[in-house]
């Protein structure tokens, strides 16, 4: 079996997709304060910059930039995942468990892609902001509250009517097959 190899580039910018183990779950949006706190706590422990992000009911996409000289994004995701899992399972101790009796909230692996250049960054950012439309959750990017799209609009980087009713074609960005 081929092992997945991460591309560890200190100070690099990476696109990620993380999914819940239960693809029918809506835990990420149902427990948004817990996810926000887990991300804030992880950034306090080991800084990183969130360039773009969208939180959907059962998965999230994010572009993160690591600090100069640091490439340990797996530790950041472990902190985020464990913080979120602890908060959710404290509120719901009957959450699903795996064969080792550990909580099985997250899918075991995640997708990661090193951003190569500005065009690659722009393409992945558009994918992130258009993802709620692609999943038929909203008709316009501006209608989805759990997205950095709103920050991009406030900063004048995108118009408020960007991707008004566009349909995005799924590409190979680590999307799971339901």
Please outline what is shown here.
This protein has 178 residues and is of the alpha+beta class. The protein has helices at residues 27-30, 32-45, 73-91, 118-134, 149-154; strands at residues 13-19, 49-55, 59-65, 111-114. It is built from five helices and four strands; from the N terminus they run βααββαβαα.
Please outline the helices and strands:
Layout: E1 13-19, H1 27-30, H2 32-45, E2 49-55, E3 59-65, H3 73-91, E4 111-114, H4 118-134, H5 149-154
Antiparallel strand pairs: 1-3, 1-4, 2-3
Structural class: alpha+beta
Assign the CATH class of the domain at 13-115. Answer: Alpha Beta
**Distinct helical segment count:** 5
Q: In sequence order, what are the helices and strands, one letter per element? A: EHHEEHEHH
Order of strands, widest sheet: 2-3-1-4
**CATH topology-level fold name of the domain at 13-115:** Alpha-Beta Plaits
Regions with little confidence, pLDDT below 50 for 5+ residues: 166-170, 172-178
Estimate the strand proportion: 5-15%
CATH superfamily of the domain at 13-115: Transposase IS200-like
Mean pLDDT: 86
List key phrases describing it:
178 residues, alpha+beta, 5 helices, globular, disordered C terminus
């Amino acid at each position: 079996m081929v092992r997945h190899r991460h591309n560890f580039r200190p100070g690099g910018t990476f696109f990620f997709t993380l999914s819940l183990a239960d693809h029918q779950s809506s835990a990420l949006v149902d427990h948004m304060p817990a996810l926000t706190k887990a991300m804030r706590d992880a950034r306090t422990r080991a800084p990183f910059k969130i360039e773009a992000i969208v939180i959907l009911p059962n998965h999230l996409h994010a572009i993160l930039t690591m600090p100069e000289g640091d490439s340990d994004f797996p530790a950041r995701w472990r902190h985020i995942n464990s913080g979120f899992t602890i908060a959710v399972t404290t509120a719901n101790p009957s959450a699903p468990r795996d064969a080792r009796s550990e909580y099985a909230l997250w899918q075991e692996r995640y997708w990661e892609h090193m951003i190569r250049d500005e065009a690659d960054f722009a393409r992945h950012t558009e994918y992130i902001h258009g993802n709620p439309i692609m999943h038929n959750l909203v008709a316009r990017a501006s209608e989805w509250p759990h997205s950095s799209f709103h920050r991009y609009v406030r900063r004048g980087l995108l118009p408020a009517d960007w991707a008004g009713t566009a349909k995005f074609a799924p590409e190979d960005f680590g999307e799971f097959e339901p």
